[in-house]
């Protein structure tokens, strides 16, 4: 047998070490090859009396990231080809047979009669953790990098290689459902407390202990394969069962608005599976998995949230030929709300930080922010006291610009005022190394204009963070007219170092994300002025898949900021660019009612000191017309909210603001939560077809006006029956779009 992905070694006691170590990859994944090789090993183990047991570990830094999603995409694509040649039924059967192979292999291992132990160091996720769950004993290392989990729901799938069925038999159903629905990566101690793993040990003791467990007669039979097995939470048809499943269904609907077929299927698998013997339960799981794999939601989410995101994270947009630049020390000027956050994430990534503000107090305040955030992490047990001290030791807070002299990159986050920014550019460049890069975190000012204050505009770039910086994963990199490749390359390297996802955007008003967000909020404002009840606007937005309604979102970014944007839009583009109904609403709220948003606890919502926010009752008094909710077309309201954003995204492509369609979709989901089940606004248009989208938008334009008119690009795609991804490339076509 040739060993490519796994190395095996049989010791004197008959214990086979299986070390997973795929060549040419930094991380092990379950590819078709790796699965076939593992299957061969499993058969050898079962058939060779000299082998008493198996210890599976990894030869890499991590155990494994799970299934190769491009392989899953391939299986989904099989459906399309089979359907075309052999019909629907045969196609569905082919996908079922293909997609259950891993589940069957794991069941074979579980019932082989030989004990298998998983020794896990580093991350072990998805299909790899499903392998561990099929093993008879699990030991994880106490290394800070170790995590186990089943994150499949995050890409529109659910654990389909027995993971769902096994977790439901290992944990009480509430805990199982919670774990499966959240898809979290779980730390060793918590995994042990949940009984997902059996032991937590220092990594150098794991293999020895695993072998001991086998030598001491470790049992190769799972509890559910023994007579008299009792489910940890009792039978489904029992009082505790009734207290679990109906509420679980309600929670699913509350959290997902029934937009995620994978999560719905997973609930069904748990509910049905717990009433069936193991093998039948696994078959039910496989049937649902095959169906979910063929869903447009899974195809779109895998493409955007896994394939495209990974490509962008790995530097897909890094200019070819731009060499490596040093990146050890980063200066941040302006230690306010944003600058302090940028300082924290930069120091967290292990880089040296110089935090400069107008005086020592202001600079210290910025550093205090980092102290607060990292202390919370220590309190949660995620970071040790010494790591906290080291992080704070990396941040120098000072009013002295001279401290920036040896920085590789300086990011300014001072007031949004071109004059102040120009002064800062001059002061920084007076001390900065010739080859260092200067970046601005401006949210509205053109980079090309700001770079005019620079002596070296080719080393000037926009790095636009979103707030709160420590939570938001997206960073927009803004390329000004004179920004050079090295500046962009270093900005990309920096974003990679701080583990965020970059999109590269042309210098233009609102860049990408804010343009779409503004369109979303405008729609919410206009609905309100038309007389739609505020609660309905917010609920409809969530039904459409948005994480927060437009009114709530506006409260977060501040209502007076909305008004400022209206003022600057008028100044730059004239009266016609401003919507009078929106302006009147915001002026009344800000100038007459003093309602600025969450920051002063009064916006569209009231924010009491204690308790939950609630919509401000006074909103109804601002509505000149009040529409009867019973008469409103909910689907139309939903469409308005998504179509407005998707049209704006399509415009950014036509205008060359976005040059890579993957970035629009990834940016929209990470930047403002565009309904993730769609895979992003362009994937959404592609999935329904440009022609249908244009018809939908035109119908809205007839009722609500020109803002819903499709641009020339959309009309052209519609006329030619093309898609964004088809025309502009990027990642592969989603599997089921071809179906
Ligand atoms: P802020 O008012 O909280 O912070 C600005 C900081 O800059 C203050 O601490 C101030 O003392 C300091 N400062 C001003 N002039 C300075 C100078 N000459 N030298 C050194 N320090 C100086 O503002 P913020 O919300 O953090 O915004 C900063 C920048 O980030 C702006 O350009 C803004 O458009 C952009 N931005 C903000 C957000 C957001 O959500 N607030 C999001 C993205 C980008």
From TrEMBL:
Gene Ontology molecular function terms on file: enoyl-CoA hydratase activity; long-chain (3S)-3-hydroxyacyl-CoA dehydrogenase (NAD+) activity; NAD+ binding
Q: What is its EC number?
A: 4.2.1.17
Q: Where is the 3-hydroxyacyl-CoA dehydrogenase NAD binding domain?
A: 329-507
**Domain of life where this protein originates:** Bacteria
SUPFAM superfamilies, A to Z? 6-phosphogluconate dehydrogenase C-terminal domain-like, ClpP/crotonase, NAD(P)-binding Rossmann-fold domains
Instruction: Give a single Pfam family match.
Output: 3HCDH_N
Q: Does the keyword Lyase apply?
A: yes
Question: Per the UniProt record, which residue ranges are transmembrane?
Answer: none
Q: Taking every annotated instance into account, which residue ranges of this chain make up the domain 3-hydroxyacyl-CoA dehydrogenase C-terminal?
A: 510-607
Pathway(s)? Lipid metabolism; fatty acid beta-oxidation
Protein family per UniProt:
In the central section; belongs to the 3-hydroxyacyl-CoA dehydrogenase family. In the N-terminal section; belongs to the enoyl-CoA hydratase/isomerase family.
State the name under which the record lists this protein: enoyl-CoA hydratase
The taxonomy runs: Bacteria, Pseudomonadati, Pseudomonadota, Alphaproteobacteria, Hyphomicrobiales
Q: Which gene encodes it?
A: fadB
């Amino acid at each position: 047998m040739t060993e490519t992905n796994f190395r095996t070694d049989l010791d004197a006691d008959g214990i086979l070490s299986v070390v997973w170590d795929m060549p040419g990859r930094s991380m092990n994944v379950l590819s078709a090859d790796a699965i076939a090789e593992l299957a061969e090993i499993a058969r050898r183990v079962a058939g060779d009396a000299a082998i008493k047991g198996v210890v599976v570990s990894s030869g890499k830094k991590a155990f494994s990231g799970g299934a190769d999603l491009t392989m899953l995409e391939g299986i989904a694509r099989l459906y399309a080809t089979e359907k075309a040649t052999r019909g629907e039924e045969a196609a569905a059967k082919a996908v079922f047979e293909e997609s259950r192979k891993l589940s069957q292999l794991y069941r074979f291992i579980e019932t082989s009669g030989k004990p298998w132990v998983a020794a896990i160091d580093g991350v072990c996720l998805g299909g790899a953790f499903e392998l561990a769950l099929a093993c008879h004993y699990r030991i994880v290392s106490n290394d800070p990098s170790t995590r186990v989990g089943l994150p499949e729901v995050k890409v529109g799938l659910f654990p389909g290689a027995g993971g769902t069925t096994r977790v439901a038999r290992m944990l009480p159903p509430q805990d199982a459902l919670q774990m499966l629905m959240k898809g979290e990566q779980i730390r060793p101690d918590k995994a042990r407390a949940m009984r997902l793993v059996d032991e937590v040990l220092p990594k150098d003791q794991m293999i020895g202990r695993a072998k001991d467990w086998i030598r001491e007669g470790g049992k190769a039979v799972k509890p559910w394969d023994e007579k008299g097995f009792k489910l940890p939470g009792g039978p489904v048809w029992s009082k505790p069962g009734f207290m679990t499943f109906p509420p679980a269904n309600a929670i699913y609907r509350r959290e997902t608005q029934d937009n995620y077929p994978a999560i719905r299927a997973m609930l069904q698998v748990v509910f049905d599976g717990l009433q069936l013997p193991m093998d039948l339960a696994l078959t039910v799981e496989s049937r649902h998995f095959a169906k979910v794999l063929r869903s447009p939601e899974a195809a779109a989410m895998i493409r955007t949230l896994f394939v495209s995101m990974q490509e962008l994270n790995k530097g897909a947009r890094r200019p070819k030929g731009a060499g490596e630049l040093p990146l050890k020390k980063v200066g941040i000027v302006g230690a306010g709300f944003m600058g302090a956050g940028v300082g924290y994430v930069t120091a967290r990534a292990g880089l040296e930080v110089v935090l400069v503000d107008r005086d020592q107090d202001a600079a210290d305040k910025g550093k205090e922010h980092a102290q607060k955030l990292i202390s919370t992490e220590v309190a949660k047990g995620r970071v040790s006291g010494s790591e906290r001290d080291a992080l704070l030791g990396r941040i120098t807070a000072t009013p002295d610009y001279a401290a920036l002299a040896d920085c590789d990159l300086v990011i300014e986050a001072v007031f949004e005022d071109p004059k102040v920014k120009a002064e800062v550019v001059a002061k920084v460049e007076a001390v900065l190394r010739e080859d260092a890069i200067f970046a601005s975190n401006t949210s509205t000012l053109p980079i090309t204009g700001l770079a005019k204050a620079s002596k070296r505009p080719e080393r000037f770039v926009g790095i636009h963070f979103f707030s709160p910086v420590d939570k938001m994963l997206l960073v927009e990199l803004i390329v000004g007219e004179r920004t050079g490749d090295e500046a962009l390359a270093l900005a990309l390297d920096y974003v990679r170092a701080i583990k965020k996802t970059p999109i590269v955007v042309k210098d233009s008003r609102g860049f990408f994300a804010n343009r779409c967000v503004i369109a979303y909020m405008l729609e919410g404002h206009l609905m309100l002025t038309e007389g739609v009840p505020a609660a309905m606007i917010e609920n409809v937005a969530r039904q459409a898949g948005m994480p927060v309604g437009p009114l709530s979102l506006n409260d977060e970014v501040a209502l007076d900021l909305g008004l400022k944007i209206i003022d600057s839009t008028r100044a730059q583009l004239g009266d016609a660019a401003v919507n009078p109904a929106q302006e009147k609403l915001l002026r009344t709220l800000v100038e007459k009612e003093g309602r600025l948003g969450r920051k002063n606890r009064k916006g569209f919502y009231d924010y009491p000191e204690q308790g939950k926010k609630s919509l401000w009752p006074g909103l109804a008094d601002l509505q000149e017309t009040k529409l009867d909710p019973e008469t409103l077309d909910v689907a139309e309201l939903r469409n308005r909210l998504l179509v407005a954003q998707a049209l704006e995204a399509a415009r950014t492509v036509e205008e060359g603001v976005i040059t890579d369609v993957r970035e629009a979709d990834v940016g929209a989901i990470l930047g403002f939560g565009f309904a993730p089940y769609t895979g992003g606004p362009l994937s959404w248009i592609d999935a329904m077809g440009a022609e249908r989208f244009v018809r939908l938008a035109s119908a809205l334009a007839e009722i609500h006006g020109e803002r819903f008119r499709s641009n020339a690009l959309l009309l052209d795609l519609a006329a030619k029956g093309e898609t964004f991804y088809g025309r502009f490339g990027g990642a592969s076509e989603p599997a089921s779009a071809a179906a």
